[in-house]
């Protein structure tokens, strides 16, 4: 059993940053889902920041969205999903 990951992909050859960014995400669709979830959370936190400035910190979730995007793009260009 390979933990639900697609067969034939050796993620051990990916750079550590890509392995960490996509850890536990078996498909490209799942990675895009987390990208969009991060974008929505970042936008919601920035919006709520106008009510309570504490929420502006949640805007940093945009860095997670960027990480997912760059990891997806790297796999598309340098490897494969499964």
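Sequence proposed for the structure above (82 residues):
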């Amino acid at each position: 059993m390979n933990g639900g990951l697609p067969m034939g992909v050796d993620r051990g050859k990916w750079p550590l940053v890509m392995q960490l960014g996509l850890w536990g995400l078996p498909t490209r669709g799942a990675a895009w889902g987390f990208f969009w979830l991060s974008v929505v959370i970042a936008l919601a936190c920035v919006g709520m920041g106008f009510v309570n400035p504490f929420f502006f910190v949640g805007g940093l979730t945009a860095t997670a969205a960027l990480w997912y995007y760059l990891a997806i793009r790297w796999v598309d260009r340098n490897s494969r999903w499964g």
